[in-house]
Amino acid sequence: MSPLLIFLAGIFSLMSVFYVVRLFNKKAITICCGTWSPWNELIHILGSLIMLGMVLPPLFTYQYALMTLWCLSVALWYAVYLNFPSGPVRFWKFLHANMYLSMGLMCAVMAGLAPSGVFLVIYGVVVNAVVLLYFAKAISYCITHKPPLWFALGSNIFHVIMAGTMILMFLFPETFMIGHAHHH
After folding, report:
1. Residue 182: is its pLDDT beyond 50?
2. 47 and 53 in contact (C-beta within 8 Å)?
3. Parent domain of 141
């Protein structure tokens, strides 16, 4: 396994630990972010584990199929709840729905359930570029806010890393995903 994939595995492991800490810090997250949802934290824990599963060798036969099912389910959940509430939170949910859809499609390719193609690559790169830019902008807000919003800052940094990694995965799948090479 390449040093790059080992590094990314470490980042996504750290990301899952970060969201476990957030899961058990309701008061701090509510103060920092204005709201706390155990479902939201669990989605992010499992999302980081999905990313970890994309850069590590598969542990069992149907791993990528299960990862596909999870990502597409989360994308659908976010899409269904786009109506509540409106404004910036709605856009945030829209970004997450599309980010999970792109992850689900990539996992489907890895599972051999869907073909990779130009449309998929363009969709994945564009969606994750928008996610990256949105959360990069949010980083500066968290840093300049008094006091700094540490839990939000960590979350925004991890979203930027995840979106950047997804862009690279769509552009260079054989380099950034061990399981991808087996399905061409």
Report:
1. no
2. no
3. 3-183
